[in-house]
Write a structure and sequence with these properties.
Blueprint lengths: L6 H8 L13 H14 L12 H8 L3 H13 L3 E4 L3 E4 L22 E2 L10 H12 L15 H13 L9 E4 L2 H12 L5 E6 L3 H9 L3 E6 L8 H11 L3 E4 L13 H14 L2 E5 L25 E6 L11 E4 L2 H12 L7 H12 L1 H26 L4 E2 L7 E5 L5 H9 L3 E2 L1 E2 L12 E5 L4 H18 L15
Parallel strand pairs: 3-13, 5-6, 5-7, 7-8, 8-9
Antiparallel strand pairs: 1-2, 4-10, 9-10, 11-12, 12-15, 14-15
């Protein structure tokens, strides 16, 4: 699935690319080549995308074709572009720079480590009471075998009611309860993505989604998000029309890891374009409850679905607790039954007791979610303040919701910094873990799920090793940690 970018689109991405004036001004072709390499390293320009013809890009940029031709030649020499006569030129990375996503990340148990690899909060105070009440509810189910492949009816009804309250009418028959959002995604991929099928994802995106897609041996292409503004609607819809992927995986609410919120207009156009391209949309709503600044939320993507092209997945890990392995799929009733049949071959059903706990927590959703939002808002602001004090060179677009910041660093040092931070007791999630092929080295995901004092201490430690990197110390390579 090879997509292409038009001249005007690439010109918009490049922005102010011209060489700076001065005595040591570099040629325009070198500045243009450097700007394209920057787009590739930041993940804004996907790998494997066909660039516009030299004449087309020259017209869009208002430069000579000679300048573009020389820039393309420089990119080929550095391994960032591959050309074939009659087929065009498409983006690549130099040999040896490929860094694959290793997939599942699991939290460590070392109490001395500040773990910023996990974007999830501790359990709410209401969990203990909900668990005790659920134990009282349990006798109603002890007379049966306990297998409910689609989930307990009362929990499915509670989840369906949440969707209905958000503006998309939903019945219990349209809900499948799963062991977390990750299993929800895995089941949908098992049904929808045969080996070798083309799939479109955002870049950056959730690492465990990339791992699940790799397990299905999908052919993954990417749509690059701008760190400051998010989705480029024209490029995203163009990628759907050109590539016609089997599935597109998107996170429209406080995207992981950038924190961006997709507007209603793009949601509507996305659904319409997916329908015309024959693409199924998997919409991850993990962070939908975590609006932090009181802004009105856009309607769910499923509101615009008229042709059963949208499958929504979500769960209780982010607003409630990750240890409560409750997730769900919202889809058409026939699709839910097909997913349940696949699920039986995986784990039969979710634990009855955990589902009863979830029912009790959802009944208290208004106060639990409000408290979580207030907690995260304070922690986000504390993390931002600490970064302003200790890492002022880094750039961050303040997210209006979610659990994380996506920081643009002052150099392509994310992996090196993450390795160095281990020596001072901080576990980080470097930018390349959220993309493909070694890009995103200028970025770092920083969750604000921990308490304010711990976040401030973590930033102090990160700042100390950041400045050590400039002194020439090279941290030793380590066996990659398994993080979640």
């Amino acid at each position: 699935m090879t997509s292409s970018v038009r001249g005007v689109q690439l010109a918009r991405l490049l922005g102010q690319w011209h060489a700076l004036p001065g005595r040591h001004r570099s040629p325009d072709y070198a500045a243009l080549a450097a700007a394209v390499r920057g787009l590739l390293s930041d993940g804004r320009l996907p790998l494997g995308v066909r660039l516009p013809a030299e004449r087309e890009l020259a017209e869009a940029l208002g430069v000579s074709r000679t300048t573009v031709s020389a820039a393309y030649r420089a990119l080929r020499e550095t391994g960032h572009l591959t050309s074939r006569r009659g087929a065009g030129s498409w983006t690549t990375l130099p040999q040896g720079h490929r860094v694959a996503t290793s997939g599942l990340w699991a939290a460590g148990d070392d109490g001395d480590v500040i773990d910023l690899g996990v974007a999830a909060s501790p359990a709410p105070d209401e969990l203990i009471g909900a668990a005790r009440a659920a134990a009282d509810d349990l006798p109603r189910y002890l007379g049966s075998a306990g297998y409910h492949p689609t989930g307990l009816v009362e929990l499915r009804e509670a989840v369906a009611a949440g969707y209905t309250a958000r503006g998309v009418a939903t019945s219990a028959e349209q809900i499948l309860i799963t062991a977390g959002t990750q299993q929800a995604l895995d089941l949908v991929l098992r049904l929808s993505v045969p080996a070798g099928a083309p799939v479109l994802v955002e870049s950056p995106t959730y690492p465990n989604a990339l791992a699940a897609l790799s397990a299905r041996r999908a052919r993954i292409s990417t749509h690059g998000l701008d760190a400051a503004t998010g989705w480029d609607g024209e490029l995203l819809l163009g990628a759907l029309r050109q590539g016609r992927p089997r599935v597109a995986y998107v996170i429209p609410e406080f995207q992981n890891p950038t924190g961006h919120l997709m507007d209603a207009a793009l949601r509507e156009r996305l659904v319409a374009t997916a329908h015309s391209a024959g693409t199924e949309l998997i919409v991850d709503e993990s962070f939908v409850d975590l609006s932090l600044d009181g802004a009105e939320m856009p309607p769910p993507v499923a509101v615009f679905d008229r042709h059963s092209r949208v499958v929504s997945i979500g769960g209780m890990s982010k607003a409630y607790w990750g240890g409560l392995r409750i997730g769900w799929v919202r889809a058409s009733a026939p699709l839910v039954q097909r997913l349940a049949a696949i699920r039986v071959g995986v784990d039969m059903a979710s634990p009855v007791l955990e589902q009863l706990v979830a029912v009790r927590l959802l009944a208290q959703a208004p106060q639990i979610v409000a408290a979580r939002r207030a907690q995260l808002r304070g922690r986000r602001d504390a993390l931002l303040a600490a970064m302003r004090d200790h890492l002022p060179e880094w750039s961050v677009t303040v997210p209006a919701g979610g659990v994380m910041l996506w920081a643009e660093l002052d150099g392509p040092i994310s992996s090196a910094l993450s390795r160095a931070a281990e020596d001072v007791g901080v576990r980080l999630a470097p930018g390349p873990r959220f993309g493909l092929d070694g890009t995103l080295e200028r970025f770092l995901r920083l969750p604000f799920a921990l308490d304010e004092e711990t976040l401030a201490e973590a930033v102090k430690r990160i700042a100390s090793v950041r400045y050590d990197l400039d002194r020439g110390a090279r941290p030793a390579w380590r066996t990659p940690a398994v993080i979640a």
